[in-house]
Design a protein that fits this description.
This protein starts with 11 loop residues before the first helix and ends with a helix. The chain is α/β, with parallel strands linked by helices. It is globular. The relative contact order is 0.13. 36% of the residues lie in helices and 14% in strands.
């Protein structure tokens, strides 16, 4: 989920409060990285300042049973590298990597970018893998998104790499994304050992409830809870992230 540190509409404290009211045990803050200037992506210095704010919030939450995880939605660049200082990425709890540029690259180029990103020990989750946008209104406060076709890549190779490196594929809950598309998600379900993360991709408090939409998609396709990394406790999720970071 995103806050007003990047392109979100509400403060970190407001998003935390809403998530706790919805009954969650934890929330992962994944604001954008520097090169996504249109989304006010966080420089290294700004991200470090955000980490200080999260530490203060967690100190205030001590004993409540709720926890804020540090994270980022980091851009996957043209060469497949990640758009942030690797040492800082290694300090974060959860790293989602997404493509936001070059989305019309040819299949081989897109596949190479994703494969290199998945091999990076700092990446945990591959975000909205096709990058598509649907012409739907996200909620009463937000206009319909501008349509964007899905990118093309070798899904079989990408999903196999995710299994090999112990990474997860995001099921993006935004109504204007629903990414991966159903046919691709159906194919992903058949890949032995492939894990998923159901992510609200919320940019406002009211959007945190979108998590239910992704859960319904996953349940409808028979994806069991043991294959969804954020059905785990915060401690088990962090242990999973550490398991491939150390590989």
């Amino acid at each position: 989920m995103h806050t007003d540190w990047s392109d979100g509409g509400h403060s970190l404290s407001a998003m935390v409060r809403t998530a706790a009211e919805l009954g969650h045990d934890y929330i992962a803050v994944t604001d954008h990285s520097p090169r996504l200037k249109v989304a006010n992506g966080l420089t290294t210095d700004r991200l470090r300042r955000q980490l200080d704010e999260i530490a203060q919030i967690n100190a205030a939450l001590d004993g409540t049973g709720f926890r804020v995880l540090t994270g980022i939605e980091v851009d996957i660049l043209a060469d497949g590298s990640l758009d942030q200082d690797p040492k800082l990425l290694a300090e974060l709890d959860v790293v989602v990597g997404s493509l936001h540029s070059g989305l019309r690259d040819d299949m081989d180029t897109m596949t190479r970018r994703m494969l290199r990103a998945l091999a990076d020990p700092n990446l945990d989750i591959l975000g909205h893998c096709t990058g598509r946008k649907l012409r739907v209104k996200t909620d009463a406060a937000h206009a319909a998104s501008r349509w964007r076709p899905p990118s093309t890549f070798d899904a079989a190779k990408v999903f196999a790499a995710a299994v090999r490196h112990g990474k997860a594929i995001e099921i993006n809950c935004r109504p204007d994304r629903r990414d991966p598309p159903t046919a691709m998600l159906e194919a992903a379900v058949q890949v032995d050992g492939l894990l998923f993360a159901i992510d609200s991709d919320a940019h406002a408090m009211e959007q945190l409830s979108w998590l239910d939409l992704g859960a319904q998609r996953a349940g409808g396709l028979g994806i069991t809870a043991d294959r969804i990394v954020n059905t785990n406790s915060a401690e088990d999720l962090l242990a999973w992230c550490e398991s491939h970071a150390a590989a």
